[in-house]
Amino acid sequence: MTAHEIIIRPIVSERSYSAMEENKYTFEVAKDANKFQIKDAVEEIFGVKVVRVNTLNVKPKTKRVRYVAGKTRSWKKAVVTVAEGQTIEVFGTQA
After folding, report:
1. 13 CB contacts (<8 Å, ≥6 apart)?
2. Integer Cα distance of 3 and 32 in angstroms
3. What are the beta bridge partners of residue 28?
4. DSSP alpha helices (H): ranges in 1-95?
5. Would you kindly state one Gene Ontology biological process term found in this protein's UniProt entry (predicted)?
6. Which distant-in-sequence residues (6+ apart) come within 8 Å of 87 by Cβ?
7. Contact 55/6 with Cβ under 8 angstroms?
8. CATH topology assigned to domain 3-82
9. Is 55 strand, coil or helix?
10. In Å, how far from its chain's centre is CA 15?
11. Residue 91 predicted with pLDDT over 80
12. Could you give the CA distance from residue 67 to residue 28 in angstroms, rounded to a whole number?
């Protein structure tokens, strides 16, 4: 698996945005990726030193559309802590 297959997208929410002040960044990752693979992928893509990786599996929620009940998809989330003084540019540089 390549680094871009492991890191699917950054998660940008109020909670994850406030955690960026503590050098913690949240990503959606491949379900079969482990912590070591996630660490290597973030270091390769963003060029930062990763201190810690916390992962969790997000369970599906039940949703209804009129009379039909279904479920949202399940996915894996990783909270990556980078070294002090380093940042990841989530929104990219704006011209």
Report:
1. 26
2. 13
3. 9, 77
4. 3-6, 14-19, 35-46
5. translation
6. 20, 23, 48
7. no
8. Alpha-Beta Plaits (3.30.70)
9. strand
10. 13
11. no
12. 31
